[in-house]
Each structure stands twice: as structure tokens, then as C-alpha cells.
Amino acid sequence: MDAPNLHLLRGDDKNGIAQYLKQIISGLGADFDPGMNLTRLDGKSSSLDDLKMAVNSLPFFGSYRLVILDSVPGRLDKTNQNQFTQVLENIPPTTHLVIVAEDHQKWRRDGGSWTQSWESLPSSHWLVKWFSARQGAEVIDLPLPEARQMDSWISKEVQKQGGRIEPSAAYELGTHTGTDTSIASQEISKLLTYVNFERAITREDVLELVSEEGSTDVFVMLDRLMEGKTAEAQAMMRRLLGDSQPEILLGAVIHRFRQLIQVCEGMEAGDDPADLARKTGVFQNRINAYMGAARRYGMTGLIGIYRRLLEMDVQAKTSRVDLATNLELFILEANQ
């Protein structure tokens, strides 16, 4: 069977999505030239005609074209089904289309038990059904790991990067990075460079390199913001912007407020702290702090903040507003 040329990547693990995109590009062969044959479209601003033109163009000096369509769940309602599937059904075999659908898993009660399902693109969604039934198409789920899975994820990522790590070190690193795989992957690279790939990363290495440096401060900064300590959070954000890419910081902020929305939803449903920690991936010893923040912001406030963060993401991609400036302003806005 030929390899699929239609790919639906569903999830909120940005690092996992980036790695899978690299895998797709690698599979296109040595003659694939991204400068000539790669088109990336923003699903929030690109029209269906833009997509048609991109997928139907012939490859230049190579075997394949690659079209990546970002940020699409909001546009995939029932009214767009016929036009969208018509485009998909007529994509030539020389074109690979990747639809990147940022989505989040949510716990739902099914009878007497709890199950997880995707919020925007569940298995019942017409696009998922189309991809699942179509030869030459694939649905790839890339969710962030749960907090209890981070030890295992970190150990596997260390092996993937060519190194070794002691179990206690994997646990320690997970307590600092949470479930943010992008930051965890960067910290692993730094730690492996520190040990020169000659020995296993130890807990002492993590404490020495991670605890006092930038990535950990992302989470300390978020804790201060969550506690309403605006001045401290603003000072920490300014230092972080001097050492870290703003896109990584934005991802961490979005993830934190997404967790707060989930905590707020669980509180409204009457969940106790233990259930909330299990469903949201928040560490048990931190869930009360998250619950306090969720009460202070309220669901209306959290949804407004989350929309503002998504707006900042779009502005960064379209270069309308400097992301670093937006992040500093956000610290002030979040606690007004």
C-alpha cells in the first residue's frame, strides 16, 4: 500500500506535531526542496480558493509538493463540508496535504465511567470520518502527555536524542517542565550537552542546570501570575524574554490557562480535587492553587483571557504586533 498523502494531525502537543511534520518531509525524498515546494497556509485567514490553488499546483523540480494548513477546527463546521471534501477528493497524488488541527482532550462522563474525547474534532466529526474511511489518508493523534506520563515521555525523548537519564532525574525534570514537551525537549538537549552524551543525566544535573535557569522560571512566573502577583510576574517575564523565544513562552502561558479552564469546568461539575488533578494533569500538590485561581478569574474571565492569547498567536504569525511586547502587556491585562 502506498504511503498516505493526506494527513490530519490532531492534538495540542506542538513539539510532537513539529516532529511529525519533519518525519513527513523526510519521507518526501532527497529531491524535495521546501523553498520551492512547501506552502504553509493559516486556516483562519486563507480562503478555500487559496487552498485549491496550493494543492493543485505542480511540484517544481521535484516529485512532491507539501501544503500545511494550520488552525482549522473553527472553520470545519457542517456548512463547509461539501466544498472542503471536494477539494480533498481532487488533490493530486503529487501533493501532500497536512491539516494541523489544534485540539484538546476533555474528560466526559459516559454512563458510570469517565472517558476522554477530543473537543473540536471527535470521532463523530465529518472530517475525522472522511479521513478514517479514505485510502491514502491518516489521522494522527498528538495529545500532550498527562502529568503521570511525563517520566516515561522524558526517558523516551532522552533515548531519541541519543542519551541516557536516571529515573530520579526524569521525575525531577518532569516536576519543573510539567507536561510542556517543547520545553522538556529543550531542557533535555541542554542536559545532554552538559554531560557530553558520555553518561546518564542525574537528578543532581537537573537541579544544577534547570532549577536556577530560564525554563523553570516560566512556571514560577505563571504561578505568580496565577496568584495575582502582577509585579513579580512582569519582572520574571521581562527576564525570560531576554533568554527565551517568545513563541515558547506563549505556548506555556496558553497551556496554563487551558488547564485553568479545565479546572473551572470540573469545579462547576462538582469534581473533588483528586478527580480534578487526574483529569487536568495538574500535580496533586498544586491543584488547590489552581482551584483558587480558577475561582478568582471565573469562567468568563478565563475564556476572555484564552481568546486574547489565541489572538496574540495570530498576530505573531501575521507580524502585526511584536509577540514579546504582547506578552509583557498580557501580564498587566490578565490581572486587571
| Strand percent estimate | 5-15%
Number of strands: 7
Structural class: alpha/beta
H and E order: EHHEHEHEEEHEHHHHHHHHHH
Distance between the termini: 57 Å
Number of domains: 3
Residue share in helix: 55-70%
| Sheet with the most strands: spatial strand order | 2-3-4-1-7
Contiguous low-pLDDT stretches (5 residues minimum) are none
Rg, please? Answer: 21 Å
Gross morphology is globular
Major sheet attributes: 5 strands, parallel
**Integer average pLDDT:** 87
Q: What's the CATH class label of the largest domain?
A: Alpha Beta
CATH homologous superfamily classification of the largest domain? P-loop containing nucleotide triphosphate hydrolases
Number of helices: 15
CATH topology of the largest domain: Rossmann fold
Report on the structure:
This protein is α/β, with parallel strands linked by helices and 336 residues long. The chain has 3 domains: 6-141, 3-Layer(aba) Sandwich (Rossmann fold), CATH 3.40.50.300; 144-212, Helicase, Ruva Protein, domain 3; 217-336, Zinc Finger, Delta Prime, domain 3 (Up-down Bundle). The chain has helices at residues 14-27, 34-37, 48-56, 81-89, 126-133, 150-160, 167-177, 181-195, 203-209, 214-226, 230-243, 246-268, 273-280, 287-318, 323-334; strands at residues 6-11, 38-42, 65-70, 95-102, 105-110, 113-118, 137-141. The strands form 2 sheets. Strands 2-3-4-1-7 form a 5-stranded parallel β-sheet, sandwiched between helices. It has a two-stranded antiparallel ribbon with strand order 5-6. The mean pLDDT is 87.
